[in-house]
């Protein structure tokens, strides 16, 4: 019996050690360069001793690797393998997570039917399990796909189902995100004034709270709304601001869509050469990111630009490719304009029969769209008539009730007399009560004044703290770095500035939701604070970016090796902090010292920021110093 107990304990300890080694290896693989990661993942998956859950985590990590690199075809292949594994081993929660990820991949590829199929499967699980936040996330994704299909009413219903779940179980950020998506739906419904108002409100929120990626998305949507509203200069300014951000982040998928919209604005401004230049870049990024809908749009702009420049043959080449892809995607909103353009090009090439056929195809498509819209309008009209009938019945009931209340003149006079008597008695009572309460009120005013003073002091402290992570915020950073710069210029007391950014944070939020993202930000802030030496302060600079000010540097720690040792300590601490099991957290950083012959405070900040982006361009998960 004692031998069996010892054997059981040894087996349990061995299993725990193996599980720890598996998680540690998974994290270490994700820190390698691209080529090395794939080789190590294959070696890990070749191990027969992996449990079904561990094999899922490894397969999911490979899928996420391809997704983050915008290699959507490879991501889809690995995602399907992962999905088959979860079905075979009956892993319910991992299966739902994989269904959601497959839906996202299909959505980015423009295959909306498959995206909706997987979204609906994931939604059924989250509804049954009671995971309200994930349920709202999937409903939001479903609405995006329905809107892209042109099913505006269905999309609006999905958004309206998601919004109360976000308000009750999510955060203000989630609610603003849904409203920004509703604004995108208003654009498709051509309700541009409403869309512009909602997007301007979202832009203000994202700017205030430092959500740079969401700000770029909202700016791009606002540019589209302004474009359709005819405000071309403002539309171009918003889209260019969004383009600069996506170029800096090297996000091919978003670049493809933004370049298409800028190209369309230049077409509307009658500048086809500029439109052509942006659309050619858009085609390149569309192909690189498998963004098929953006590819259709950019091909259409190129066809129009060449047609305007008088080269109908070149225009026809781009048009044919766009028509073929739009038909494969069943992209109704683009097919109509492509048919019209096709008719114009065929006419320019002196092909009247083909031009007439293209015009007839356009008319057939428009008839189908008109019939669909007419049926929707009839349904809405019937609902409105029913509502009007209900209002008439309610008005009749209210009128009858009023007649009953005013049955006789005597009853009305009696009511007025009783009311007057009550008012006189009430005023007499109030005057007597006020006399006795004057002294008590004076005392309360004094107490409230003292309390207000304390609250103002607390508010001042709160205004310098980040509400999510509990560390100091951007306002506190701006004040502190100005003080350190003044000390440096007056007394040559050196200090260091370090910018730290969490890698792939947008993809993390897309996969696990904003609640998980908020948890990562909180834990990262705690790691940064614990890793800092005396004289250092940590700030949340904005979104997933943090700043560190290290003051009072002596000759030993002032060297770059000192800052590197702090960064390594941050890397080692991040491994032990909690995150979803299939994810790992890494950071990139850039630093600058005050004594590096920088001419101004702004230059010091810019140097540190540039080094941060050097770290990202070099592969992330590293520190760049002088």
Physical arrangement of strands within the biggest beta sheet: 2-3-1-4-5
Biggest sheet, open or closed, and with what strands and sense? 5 strands, mixed
Determine the N-to-C terminus distance: 65 Å
* Strand elements, count: 5
Specify the number of helices.
24
The fraction of residues assigned to DSSP E strands is under 5%
Taken from the alpha-carbon principal axes, the silhouette is globular
Order of helices and strands: HHHHHHHHHHHHHHHHHHHHEHHEEHEHE
Kindly state the mean pLDDT as a whole number?
81
How much is the radius of gyration in Å?
A: 31 Å
Taking pLDDT < 50 over at least 5 consecutive residues as the criterion, the unreliable ranges are 1-20, 376-381
Coarse structural class? mainly alpha
Q: What percent of the residues sit in helical stretches (DSSP H or I)?
A: over 70%
């Amino acid at each position: 019996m004692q031998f069996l107990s010892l054997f059981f304990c040894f087996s349990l300890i061995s299993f725990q050690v193996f599980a720890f080694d598996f998680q540690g290896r998974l994290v270490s693989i994700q820190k390698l360069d691209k080529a090395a990661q794939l080789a190590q993942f294959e070696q890990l998956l070749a191990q027969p001793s992996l449990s079904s859950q561990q094999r899922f985590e490894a397969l999911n990590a490979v899928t996420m690797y391809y997704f983050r690199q915008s290699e959507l075809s490879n991501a889809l292949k690995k995602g399907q393998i992962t999905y088959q594994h979860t079905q075979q081993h009956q892993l319910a929660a991992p299966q739902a997570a994989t269904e959601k990820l497959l839906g996202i991949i299909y959505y980015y590829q423009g295959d909306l039917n498959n995206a909706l199929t997987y979204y609906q499967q994931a939604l059924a699980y989250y509804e049954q399990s009671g995971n309200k936040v994930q349920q709202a996330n999937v409903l939001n994704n479903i609405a995006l796909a329905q809107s892209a299909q042109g099913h505006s009413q269905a999309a609006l219903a999905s958004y309206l189902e998601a919004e109360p779940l976000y308000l009750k179980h999510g955060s203000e950020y989630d609610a603003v995100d849904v409203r920004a998506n509703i604004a995108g739906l208003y654009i498709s419904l051509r309700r541009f004034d409403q869309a512009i108002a909602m997007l301007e409100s979202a832009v203000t929120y994202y700017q205030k709270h430092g959500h740079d990626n969401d700000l770029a998305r909202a700016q791009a949507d606002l540019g589209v709304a302004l474009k359709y509203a005819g405000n071309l200069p403002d539309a171009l300014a918003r889209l260019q601001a969004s383009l600069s951000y996506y170029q800096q982040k090297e996000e091919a998928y978003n670049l493809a869509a933004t370049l298409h919209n800028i190209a369309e604005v230049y077409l509307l401004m009658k500048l086809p050469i500029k439109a052509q230049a942006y659309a050619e870049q858009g085609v390149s990024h569309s192909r690189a990111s498998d963004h098929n809908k953006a590819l259709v749009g950019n091909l259409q702009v190129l066809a129009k630009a060449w047609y305007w420049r008088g080269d109908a043959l070149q225009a026809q080449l781009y048009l044919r490719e766009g028509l073929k892809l739009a038909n494969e995607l069943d992209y109704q909103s683009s097919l109509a304009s492509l048919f019209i353009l096709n008719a114009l090009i065929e006419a320019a090439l002196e092909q009247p029969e083909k031009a007439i056929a293209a015009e007839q195809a356009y008319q057939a498509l428009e008839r189908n769209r008109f019939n669909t819209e007419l049926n929707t309008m009839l349904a809405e009209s019937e609902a409105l008539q029913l509502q009007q009938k209900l209002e008439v019945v309610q008005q009749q009931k209210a009128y009858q009730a009023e007649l009953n209340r005013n049955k006789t003149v005597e009853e009305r006079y009696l009511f007025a007399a009783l009311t007057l008597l009550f008012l006189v008695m009430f005023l007499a009572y109030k005057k007597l009560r006020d006399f006795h309460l004057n002294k008590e009120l004076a005392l309360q005013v004094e107490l409230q004044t003292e309390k207000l003073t304390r609250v103002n002091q607390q508010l001042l402290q709160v205004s310098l703290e980040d509400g999510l992570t509990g560390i100091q915020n951007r306002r506190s950073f701006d004040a502190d770095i100005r003080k350190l710069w003044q000390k440096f210029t007056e007394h040559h007391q050196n200090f260091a500035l370090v910018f730290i950014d969490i890698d792939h944070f947008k993809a993390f939020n897309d996969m696990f939701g904003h609640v998980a993202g908020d948890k990562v930000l909180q834990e990262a802030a705690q790691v940064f604070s614990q890793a800092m030496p005396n004289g250092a302060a940590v700030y949340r600079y904005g979104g997933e970016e943090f700043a560190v000010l290290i003051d009072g540097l002596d000759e030993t720690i002032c060297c770059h090796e000192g800052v590197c040792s702090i960064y390594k300590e941050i890397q080692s601490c991040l491994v032990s902090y909690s995150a979803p099991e299939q994810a790992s957290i890494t950071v990139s950083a850039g630093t600058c010292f005050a004594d590096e012959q920088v001419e101004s405070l702004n230059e010091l900040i810019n140097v540190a920021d540039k080094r941060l982006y050097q770290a990202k361009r070099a592969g992330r998960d590293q520190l760049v110093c002088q």
